[in-house]
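Lecture 7 notes: from sequence to structure.

We start with a single chain of 129 residues. Read the sequence below before looking at the structure.
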Amino acid sequence: MGTERADLVFSPDCPSRPILDQIADKWSMMAMAVLEEPTRFNELKRRLGGVTQRVLTQTLRRLERNGMVRRTVLPTSPVGVVYSLTPMGESLRVPFGHLYAWTVEHSEQIQRCQREYDENLDAVAASEV
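Now the structure, written as C-alpha coordinates:
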Protein backbone atom coordinates (compact mmCIF):
# COMPACT_ATOMS: atom_id res chain seq x y z
CA MET A 1 0.00 0.00 0.00
CA GLY A 2 1.41 3.38 -0.97
CA THR A 3 1.99 6.08 1.63
CA GLU A 4 -0.77 8.28 0.19
CA ARG A 5 -3.25 5.40 0.35
CA ALA A 6 -2.13 4.46 3.88
CA ASP A 7 -2.48 8.06 5.08
CA LEU A 8 -6.04 8.21 3.77
CA VAL A 9 -7.25 5.97 6.60
CA PHE A 10 -6.20 8.67 9.08
CA SER A 11 -8.32 11.29 7.34
CA PRO A 12 -11.60 12.06 9.15
CA ASP A 13 -13.59 11.61 5.94
CA CYS A 14 -12.07 8.24 5.00
CA PRO A 15 -14.85 5.74 4.25
CA SER A 16 -13.05 3.09 6.30
CA ARG A 17 -13.52 5.04 9.55
CA PRO A 18 -17.13 3.98 10.27
CA ILE A 19 -16.27 0.39 9.36
CA LEU A 20 -13.29 0.37 11.73
CA ASP A 21 -15.48 1.92 14.43
CA GLN A 22 -18.00 -0.90 13.94
CA ILE A 23 -15.47 -3.72 13.89
CA ALA A 24 -13.50 -2.37 16.84
CA ASP A 25 -16.62 -1.92 18.99
CA LYS A 26 -16.52 -4.37 21.90
CA TRP A 27 -20.14 -5.47 21.53
CA SER A 28 -19.74 -6.02 17.79
CA MET A 29 -16.67 -8.17 18.32
CA MET A 30 -18.27 -10.14 21.11
CA ALA A 31 -21.57 -10.63 19.25
CA MET A 32 -19.72 -11.90 16.20
CA ALA A 33 -17.66 -14.24 18.37
CA VAL A 34 -20.84 -15.73 19.84
CA LEU A 35 -22.39 -16.26 16.40
CA GLU A 36 -20.73 -19.61 15.71
CA GLU A 37 -24.12 -20.85 14.52
CA PRO A 38 -27.51 -19.21 13.93
CA THR A 39 -28.56 -17.81 17.30
CA ARG A 40 -31.74 -16.22 18.63
CA PHE A 41 -31.65 -12.71 20.06
CA ASN A 42 -32.34 -13.73 23.68
CA GLU A 43 -29.62 -16.38 23.56
CA LEU A 44 -27.17 -13.77 22.28
CA LYS A 45 -28.21 -11.43 25.08
CA ARG A 46 -27.73 -14.19 27.68
CA ARG A 47 -24.30 -15.10 26.36
CA LEU A 48 -23.15 -11.47 26.22
CA GLY A 49 -23.29 -10.69 29.91
CA GLY A 50 -23.84 -7.01 30.59
CA VAL A 51 -25.21 -5.96 27.21
CA THR A 52 -28.57 -4.20 27.25
CA GLN A 53 -31.36 -5.09 24.84
CA ARG A 54 -31.09 -1.64 23.25
CA VAL A 55 -27.33 -1.85 22.69
CA LEU A 56 -27.52 -5.39 21.33
CA THR A 57 -30.31 -4.39 18.93
CA GLN A 58 -28.29 -1.39 17.69
CA THR A 59 -25.16 -3.53 17.36
CA LEU A 60 -26.92 -6.23 15.35
CA ARG A 61 -28.58 -3.66 13.09
CA ARG A 62 -25.22 -2.02 12.31
CA LEU A 63 -23.61 -5.39 11.67
CA GLU A 64 -26.49 -6.35 9.40
CA ARG A 65 -26.30 -3.03 7.55
CA ASN A 66 -22.56 -3.52 7.00
CA GLY A 67 -23.12 -7.00 5.60
CA MET A 68 -21.52 -8.94 8.45
CA VAL A 69 -24.63 -10.43 10.04
CA ARG A 70 -27.76 -11.91 8.52
CA ARG A 71 -31.14 -11.61 10.26
CA THR A 72 -33.56 -14.41 9.44
CA VAL A 73 -37.21 -14.36 10.48
CA LEU A 74 -38.47 -17.84 11.30
CA PRO A 75 -42.05 -18.77 10.33
CA THR A 76 -42.95 -19.91 13.84
CA SER A 77 -45.60 -18.88 16.31
CA PRO A 78 -44.62 -16.58 17.87
CA VAL A 79 -42.34 -15.33 15.13
CA GLY A 80 -38.68 -16.03 15.90
CA VAL A 81 -35.55 -14.34 14.63
CA VAL A 82 -32.08 -15.80 14.35
CA TYR A 83 -28.83 -14.06 13.59
CA SER A 84 -25.89 -15.60 11.77
CA LEU A 85 -22.64 -14.45 10.25
CA THR A 86 -22.46 -13.77 6.53
CA PRO A 87 -19.39 -14.93 4.60
CA MET A 88 -17.90 -11.46 5.16
CA GLY A 89 -18.57 -11.75 8.89
CA GLU A 90 -17.02 -15.23 8.89
CA SER A 91 -13.88 -13.75 7.32
CA LEU A 92 -13.29 -11.82 10.57
CA ARG A 93 -13.05 -15.00 12.67
CA VAL A 94 -9.30 -15.42 12.12
CA PRO A 95 -8.30 -11.81 12.93
CA PHE A 96 -10.69 -11.76 15.90
CA GLY A 97 -9.22 -15.05 17.06
CA HIS A 98 -5.72 -13.56 16.96
CA LEU A 99 -6.88 -10.48 18.86
CA TYR A 100 -8.62 -12.62 21.47
CA ALA A 101 -5.53 -14.82 21.89
CA TRP A 102 -3.35 -11.71 22.25
CA THR A 103 -5.73 -10.31 24.87
CA VAL A 104 -5.68 -13.50 26.91
CA GLU A 105 -1.90 -13.79 26.61
CA HIS A 106 -1.29 -10.21 27.76
CA SER A 107 -4.16 -9.61 30.20
CA GLU A 108 -2.10 -10.15 33.36
CA GLN A 109 0.67 -7.88 32.08
CA ILE A 110 -1.87 -5.18 31.18
CA GLN A 111 -3.53 -5.42 34.59
CA ARG A 112 -0.11 -5.10 36.23
CA CYS A 113 0.64 -2.01 34.13
CA GLN A 114 -2.73 -0.52 35.07
CA ARG A 115 -2.07 -1.07 38.79
CA GLU A 116 1.41 0.47 38.52
CA TYR A 117 0.03 3.44 36.58
CA ASP A 118 -2.75 3.98 39.14
CA GLU A 119 -0.31 3.69 42.05
CA ASN A 120 1.99 6.26 40.42
CA LEU A 121 -0.96 8.56 39.84
CA ASP A 122 -1.98 8.18 43.48
CA ALA A 123 1.59 8.95 44.58
CA VAL A 124 1.73 12.06 42.38
CA ALA A 125 -1.66 13.24 43.68
CA ALA A 126 -0.57 12.67 47.29
CA SER A 127 2.64 14.65 46.76
CA GLU A 128 0.68 17.60 45.36
CA VAL A 129 -1.44 17.92 48.49
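The first helix runs from residue 3 to 8. Keep this in mind for problem set 3.
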